[in-house]
Amino acid sequence: MNDFERHRPTAMLFFSGLTMMAINFGYVVLTGGWPIKESTYGAAVYTFPALAWCAIQLTGALGAGLGYYFRLRFTAIVGCVISGAVFAAFGALAAKASDGILLNTASLYVAVPFCCYFAWHAAWGRHER
Asked: Which residue ranges make up each domain of the chain?
């Protein structure tokens, strides 16, 4: 069993959670709510539409999860990179906010490392020929 196959169940579980988070945020936005608060993300978050944040997050997480599910390495890598970049942006924005320490920590020290880990194993992990 190679690294990609070994990590498939965990990656699919991880990215399904990120996918559900994006779907939930998108639902809140579409029903008139606003899950993005200035106290959590800082004032800079309002320069980008909330639905666009949700769409980018959904694209990355869904791409990575489906890439692992269907054994599509390139799709998994691209999805992991997009997810990692989105959560790095969340963490950077939350670092400037007054109530953003939990989001900053979760994004930069949980989500981004896992995205990098899964991208690395999809790209350069041990592959059988």
From this structure: 3-124
